[in-house]
Amino acid sequence: MEAVQETTLATIAKTLGFAGDAPGAALQVPMPFSQHIVLVEDIHVAGTTHVADIDEIVSDVQVGHELVFERDPGNSYDCWAIRVFAGGRRVGYVPCDCNEILARLMDAGKRIAGQVTAKERIGAWHKIHMEVYLDD
User: Fold this and answer.
1) Angle 18-20-22 (CA atoms, 0-180°, nearest 5)?
2) Which backbone phi and psi does 132 adopt, to 5 degrees?
3) Pairing mode, if any, of strands 36-44 and 125-135?
4) Would the pTM of this model clear 0.85, i.e. be above it?
């Protein structure tokens, strides 16, 4: 009977995701599926005209690419500033008329990001449209 209990416990441990058969092995709990919660449907990246090599950067940016956000609380113009990166290179900022709530969420540890929904060129200005979402 004791051997049956040990076998059952070993089966349960494997089913629950214990790493290995070592005593005291850590439980590996899978992360739940994350979902994108759209916070802003359509805004554009601000400040693209101030990026030195924007023509080269934008040529690599395609609709559907993820945009990474990074807080810039030391920004002398806007304490709620959020930098926007595409492919590891800065393309601009989240516009100041909608960045405070996003910045507060980021400061609270939430992952806020964006996705390119469209791009167009108007004269020398590259207008990158994006959707902003909470990855929760």
Assistant:
1) 100
2) -110, 130
3) antiparallel
4) no
What pLDDT, in 10s, does the model give residues 22-47? 555 555 555 567 788 999 999 999 99
Distance CA 121, CA 105 (A): 31
Contact 112, 102 (CB under 8 A): yes
Here the tokens at position 82 are 């959020």
Residue with tokens 């590996």: 28
Q: Specify the residue for token string 């994108």.
A: 36
Using CB atoms within 10 A of its CB, is residue 67 exposed (0-12), middle (13-18) or buried (19+)?
buried
HEC string of the chain equals CHHHHHHHHHHHHHHHCECCCCCCCCECCCCCCCCEEEEEEEEECECHHHCCCHHHHHHHCCCCCEEEEEECCCCCCCCCCEEEEECCEEEEECCCCCHHHHHHHHHCCCCEEEEEEEEEEECCEEEEEEEEEEEC
